[in-house]
């Protein structure tokens, strides 16, 4: 059964809450009628007893039936499907029925094979017209534009309105509750944070909060706030003729990092308002800023000091953000809804390799990690990034899922020259997932398992899945 997409030019549709609930229920019922095998969810206890340890999935799937069947037979239970907003809504209010039909087909094919679909919403692949909305893209302190395809969902009210319309149409055309889980992010690659610098290697020290909404409140999103020091630029020691203290810089950075967390909460709340009851994953890039690095950076007025990998520019400080997200959701999440989980995207990255070589090793999780002094313990600097991320997620009361970084030889992955190759990641990532108590590990990427390379395969993944469950 297909859904007819009504194209409306320049018209923003407003749905009443009771009508949204009815439509969501009807969409779920209609979709269930067309699917041969109900999709599992990471917290689903139905069916035969499941082995101990995490569930397993793949990233970058296209739900091709033959592949989906092979994965399911190997013990894989979930497949990530990355959606594209630019393909779904190429012009304002006009939705591509052909593309949405393809999405429905892929979801059905994966579910029919017994795989639950984990959807990446595609907000980070926005159509060009979104960048032309008021405060549509991020701006740094030099006035440079952020990437056009990563919309300013943190500060722009117009962007949030467009995102809301896209999610509403996606629910109508596909059904949000056909997804076992939805990945929520605010920056590039669908991850939490502000976007990356637009040039590589990174130049300058770009902080992405200098659009008119963030600085002057022009077109500011409801619930967002303007800069506590309008006009102040990171790296400068004065503001409005007065010296800037470390505490002043701390206040600015907390505003900057909290704004990202609040935007993620807004997306989650929007999904819940549309009736989505499944799991939510928050992909996290690496470990973000560590406490000692943050203190050094604040003392230097955020001039680039101690910003090892751009985490400060991305606005990533997980002790603050994950606790803020969890605290905000406590007021809105309801019994029976799925789990909101931090997604550690660095399971067996370069930091794990170096932490594994220490005596004693500091790579894998330890009992009590979340109960220690995460802000004052200098030993956390030697932990692997996923150990640090998982400890902060557990401290905040969030669930934890994860994924390996992917091949260090492929562009756009989390791997680099110091990272284990894919064979090494296949050996270590499932073990880390078990030892750290992850509920789900997603393998990056599906294509690697079906390539001609002998490094990894569906069969090698199946062996790891069986081994972790024993």
Question: What secondary-structure arrangement, pairings included, does this model have?
Answer:
Elements: H1 17-34, E1 55-58, H2 65-74, E2 78-82, H3 85-88, H4 97-112, E3 116-120, H5 128-131, H6 157-173, E4 181-183, H7 212-216, E5 238-239, E6 242-243, H8 246-273, E7 279-284, H9 291-299, H10 311-314, H11 318-330, E8 340-344, H12 350-356, H13 385-396, E9 399-403, H14 422-435, E10 440-443, H15 446-449, H16 458-469
Parallel strand pairs: 1-2, 1-10, 2-3, 3-4, 4-7, 7-8, 8-9, 9-10
Antiparallel strand pairs: 5-6
Helix pairs in contact: 2-16, 8-11, 11-13, 14-16
Average pLDDT: 89
For the largest sheet, list the strands in their spatial order.
1-2-3-4-7-8-9-10
Q: What assembly state would you assign to the polypeptide chains in this entry?
A: single chain
Secondary-structure element order, N to C: HEHEHHEHHEHEEHEHHHEHHEHEHH
Indicate the proportion of strand residues: 5-15%
- What proportion of the residues is helical, as a percent range? 25-40%
The SS-based structural class is alpha/beta
Q: Radius of gyration, Cα only, in angstroms?
A: 22 Å
CATH topology: TIM Barrel
* Overall shape: globular
Count of β-strands: 10
CATH architecture designation: Alpha-Beta Barrel
CATH class placement: Alpha Beta
- Poorly predicted sequence stretches spanning 5 or more consecutive residues: 1-39, 43-51
């Amino acid at each position: 059964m297909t859904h007819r997409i009504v194209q409306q030019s320049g018209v923003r549709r407003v749905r009443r809450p009771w009508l949204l609930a009815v439509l969501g229920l009807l969409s779920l019922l209609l979709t269930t009628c067309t699917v041969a095998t109900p999709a599992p969810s990471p917290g689903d206890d139905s069916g035969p007893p499941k082995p101990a340890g995490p569930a397993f999935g793949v990233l970058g799937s296209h739900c091709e039936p033959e592949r989906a069947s092979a994965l399911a037979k190997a013990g894989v239970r979930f497949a990530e499907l990355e959606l594209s907003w630019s393909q779904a809504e190429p012009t304002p209010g006009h939705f591509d029925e052909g593309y949405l039909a393809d999405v429905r087909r892929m979801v059905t094919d994966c579910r029919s094979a017994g795989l639950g679909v984990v959807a990446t919403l595609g907000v980070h692949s926005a159509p060009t017209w979104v960048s032309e909305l008021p405060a549509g893209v991020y701006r740094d302190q030099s006035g440079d534009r952020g990437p056009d395809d990563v919309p300013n969902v943190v500060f722009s009210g117009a962007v949030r309105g467009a995102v809301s319309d896209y999610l509403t149409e996606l629910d109508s055309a596909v059904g949000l509750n056909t997804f076992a889980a939805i990945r929520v992010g605010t920056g590039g690659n669908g991850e939490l944070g502000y976007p990356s610098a637009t040039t590589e290697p990174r130049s300058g020290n770009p902080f992405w909060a200098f659009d008119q909404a963030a600085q002057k409140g022009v077109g500011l999103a409801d619930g967002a706030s303007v800069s506590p020091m309008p006009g102040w630029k990171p790296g400068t020691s004065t503001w409005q003729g007065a010296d800037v203290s470390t505490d002043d810089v701390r206040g600015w950075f907390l505003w900057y990092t909290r704004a990202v967390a609040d935007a993620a909460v807004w997306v989650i709340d929007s999904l819940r308002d549309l009736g989505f009851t499944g799991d939510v994953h928050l992909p996290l890039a690496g470990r973000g800023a560590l406490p000692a690095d943050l203190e050094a950076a604040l003392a230097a007025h955020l001039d680039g000091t101690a910003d090892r990998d751009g985490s400060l520019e991305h606005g990533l400080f997980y002790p603050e953000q994950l606790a803020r997200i969890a605290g905000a959701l406590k007021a809105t999440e309801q019994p029976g809804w799925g789990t909101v989980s931090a997604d550690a995207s660095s399971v067996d990255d370069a930091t794990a390799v170096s932490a594994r070589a220490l005596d004693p090793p500091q790579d894998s999780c330890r009992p009590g990690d979340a109960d220690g002094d995460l802000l004052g313990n200098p030993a956390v600097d030697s932990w692997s990034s996923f150990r640090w991320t998982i400890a902060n997620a557990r401290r905040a009361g969030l669930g934890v899922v994860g994924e390996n970084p992917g091949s260090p030889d492929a562009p756009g992955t989390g791997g680099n020259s110091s990272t284990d190759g894919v064979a090494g990641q296949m050996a270590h990532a499932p073990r880390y997932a078990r030892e750290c108590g992850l509920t789900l590990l997603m393998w990056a990427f599906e294509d690697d398992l079906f390539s001609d390379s002998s490094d990894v395969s569906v069969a090698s993944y199946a062996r790891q899945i069986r081994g972790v469950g024993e």
